[in-house]
Amino acid sequence: MKQLLRTNDPASIAFAKALLQGEGINCFEMDVNMSVLEGSIGIFPRRIMVADADYEDAARTLTDNGIDVDDGD
For residue 32, which of 47, 15, 43 has the smallest C-alpha distance? Predict the structure, then answer.
């Protein structure tokens, strides 16, 4: 899996997941449960991960919709 997006903004996460689902690209949101440990103040970013084979299509989908993507590391 490759990291597609890393952000503290829950709206960006929701938008990105909706875009990817609309394109039929499976994604996995990581670090969701960190909010329990941090007290829901949003200091730990969440990550959207996609399969290696889907990375290029997913990155293009988000970029076309104005969301900056990570380099996939």
Answer: 47
Rounded distance, CA 73 to CA 68, Å?
14
Q: What separation in angstroms does the CA of 34 have from each of 14, 17, 39, 42, 69?
A: 17, 19, 9, 9, 22
What's the predicted TM-score (pTM) here?
A: 0.82
Q: Pairing mode, if any, of strands 2-7 and 46-50?
A: antiparallel
- Whether 69 contacts 27, CB under 8 Å: no
Bigger pLDDT: 35 vs 25: 25
Q: Would you say 49 and 3 are in contact if contact means Cβ atoms under 8 Å apart?
A: yes
